[in-house]
Write a sequence for this structure.
């Protein structure tokens, strides 16, 4: 394990009943063409609202599985521009029971605040007006990285993600994401929202000063524009999914200097952009 | 076909190259363990930003596949409380090329506007503060419907959704949603965002005065809290997914009087809530 990286095994098996436990039992009725056939208890993925406060002001309520809230908050605020560097983080307090995270940050929040006000939610889970602001700023500074990865390394790391995901097959309700070097998976996170899982990984590394420019991010979620924008903001150079990409995500990966790989399954993958990093 | 319901066949096959066409060709490189094996053209799902203006003011930018923008806009504004009834819709103009929809509505927008300001985006694609406001209001008036559906009818309609979805298997990039009566599928919509597909169906019915209280909504997307809140707002009594539900979605369905069905595949399904509507 790399310095500062949480042990994977510990992360995969949270204490049943603990606040970190991601699933709850639900009594459901099962039907087939003959009608009601059984009443049984099924594991259902936990969803809970968690509210983020920045310098005493309510900023946002995230709907998430409710675990690793320190990483989730730090990653979200870093990607949104409320946190620029670790030294700007004065205090971060998680109240697991009430589902709130209070964060105190130094430095000038006026720009992040103004952009936040301009931001509009979208039912496509994308950014609103901010989308364009970020884009202009981002396109001026594409992601820089000398990372090179072989096709075999990509496929081996994807297989590791699949093995880790096994633990969560019983709920089918999560997106799984890992951070990896070409040679090993470093960190696994899952959540009901694919953005939350990415925020946790970004936050984990932000809190420990772990660089992202020499790492791969591998996810089970689809590759859409808002994910690419988030990853460009934090300098992630190499993004892999078992799933597909959209036209806009491919355009952004091209412009932002991000290697974009999709359909990584069954020993094959397609590269949409940044093929120069694939050996 | 019911009165006012668009012909399914026509909807499934938009003119290639037309603004309604949902996929674009992308040149990708395919790799396996031996390295680069092929350069080929693949169909990728279209993603584009579409900006909504209400009474001349920019409200939100949606990231979507870019089709049926009139339905998308009307459904979004209806579910968000900017439109209460059809007579309040004065004008709706779609500019397919620039990707914008201008909507003029009568009536007092102050409440919807205030709640909109309070709203916060979440990386889990959920609602922010508004989440709670809506909830308080919603819980006071659960969905009313005398709809009864047999298990066979549920499974037959799900099979129809699966057949309609075949058309989009080549991109893997969309969520599919249908509106149905117990006896037939009425309307099919797909989009990169599961919320967009639902908004289109809600908007289609809003624009034509088609009631929802006697219909089923069947989707390929996961059943999360924000979807349940949206469907409760528009009075949808019966919701089916091929996928799973979250703990919070089940709680909401219970409180809001919505029949919630998941894992509808392989001739079986589980009912999480509202089993009294299943015969």
């Amino acid at each position: 394990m790399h310095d500062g990286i949480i042990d994977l095994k510990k992360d995969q098996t949270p204490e049943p009943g603990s606040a970190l436990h991601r699933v709850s039992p639900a009594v459901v009725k099962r039907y087939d063409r003959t009608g009601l056939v059984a009443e049984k208890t099924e594991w259902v993925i936990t969803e809970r609202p968690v509210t983020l406060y920045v310098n005493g002001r309510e900023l946002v309520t995230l709907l998430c599985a409710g675990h690793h809230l320190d990483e989730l908050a730090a990653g979200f605020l870093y990607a949104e521009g409320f946190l620029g560097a670790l030294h700007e983080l004065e205090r971060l307090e998680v109240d697991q029971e009430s589902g709130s995270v209070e964060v105190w940050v130094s430095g000038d929040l006026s720009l992040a605040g103004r952009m936040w006000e301009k931001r509009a939610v979208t039912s496509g889970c994308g950014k609103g007006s901010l989308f364009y602001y970020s884009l202009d700023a981002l396109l001026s500074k594409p992601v820089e990285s000398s990372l090179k990865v072989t096709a075999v390394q990509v496929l081996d790391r994807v297989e590791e993600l699949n093995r880790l995901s096994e633990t969560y097959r019983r709920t089918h309700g999560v997106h799984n994401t890992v951070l990896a070097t070409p040679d090993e998976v470093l960190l696994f996170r899952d959540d009901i929202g694919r953005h939350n899982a990415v925020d946790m990984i970004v936050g984990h590394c932000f809190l420990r000063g772990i660089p992202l420019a020499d790492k791969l991010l591998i996810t089970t979620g689809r590759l859409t524009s808002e994910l690419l924008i988030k990853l460009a903001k934090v300098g992630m150079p190499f993004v892999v999914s078992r799933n597909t990409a959209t036209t806009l995500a491919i355009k952004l990966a091209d412009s932002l200097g991000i290697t974009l790989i999709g359909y990584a399954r069954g020993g094959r993958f397609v590269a949409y952009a940044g093929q120069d990093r694939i050996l």
